[in-house]
Amino acid sequence: MSPHQEQQSAYKYEYGSFRSAFFGGAVSACGIPVLALSASYLGFGSLIRDSDLSVWLAVFSTFITWALPGQIAMIELYGTGASLLVITATVSLVNVRFLPMVVTVMPIIRDPGVPSWRYYLSAHLLSINSWAYLIQRGPLMPREERFPYYLGFALTIWFAGMLSAALGYFLAGAVPRPVSLGLVFLNPIFFMLLVLAGISKPSIAIATVLGAVLGPLFHLVSPDWGLIATGLVAGSAGFVCGRMMNKRAMKLKGQGHG
Fold it and tell me: Based on the domain organization, do 101 and 154 belong to the same domain?
């Protein structure tokens, strides 16, 4: 076996072609990712119906925005009579979290053989689910198969989101309102569990656990700033503890060699 073949056989996820990798991503999405996301968008469709808005707004906002927290903020602000400027600014701030996601995932899926404009267009398809899967699985597959895998995965859950938003609109009233609106939170819960399952660094584990503990406490102190304070404190603590643990491990390693 040649060195190249040995390297290829070491990959955990290998499909053999662009088309196979694309459908491999679609198959990976057709499971818990689609179910969790679809449940959330069923709740969003119900929210659209309760707000006396059109089903086409549910579908179009999913098509053009593709960020459930931002879409919910848009509907809530619209219901309060906020101006278009305020709605646009708020949705933009809510969705700015996608910037670090794009920055971290694009180097993983980037292939020199793929034109850059395709990455600019495909960045719109990125979601918390596709980001989490690419961070975990991307490095375990050949570079030339990462981009088609991402496209298959992202397009599948994107279309599932639009379909579920429309379905939730027409099913509004079939289940109690608290249940239908509560479905919105299933996808964030799934994302949190997915991240926890893939934690390999102590700093991330510390930040996650500390954030879960401090979040409710900070919210009681300040509902408006509690989330930001939680992220700042828990993230900083995780970073500092991680650095200290790495330095200690390097020191012990150096003493062992000595």
Answer: yes
Are 144 and 211 members of one domain?
no
- Tokens, residue 13: 């996820």
**Of 110, 121, 64, 55, whose CA–CA distance to 88 is shortest?**
64
CB 36 within 8 A of CB 187: yes
**Residue 247 CB neighbour total at 10 angstroms:** 10
Counted domains in the chain: 2
3-state helix, strand, coil in the chain (%, to 5): 80, 0, 20
Structure-token pair, residue 141? 């597959």
Contact 93, 70 (CB under 8 A): no
How many Å apart are CA 83 and CA 229, to the nearest integer?
Answer: 28
What would the pLDDT profile of 33-89 be if each residue is shown by its tens digit?
A: 888 888 888 888 888 988 888 999 999 999 988 888 888 888 888 888 888 898 888
Among candidate residues 159, 99, 103, 109, the one with its CA nearest the CA of residue 134? 109
Tell whether pTM > 0.85: no
Query: Can you give 6-69 as a three-state secondary structure string?
Result: HHHHCCCCCCCCHHHHHHHHHHHHCCHHHHHHHHHHHHHHHHHHHCCCCHHHHHHHHHHCCCHH
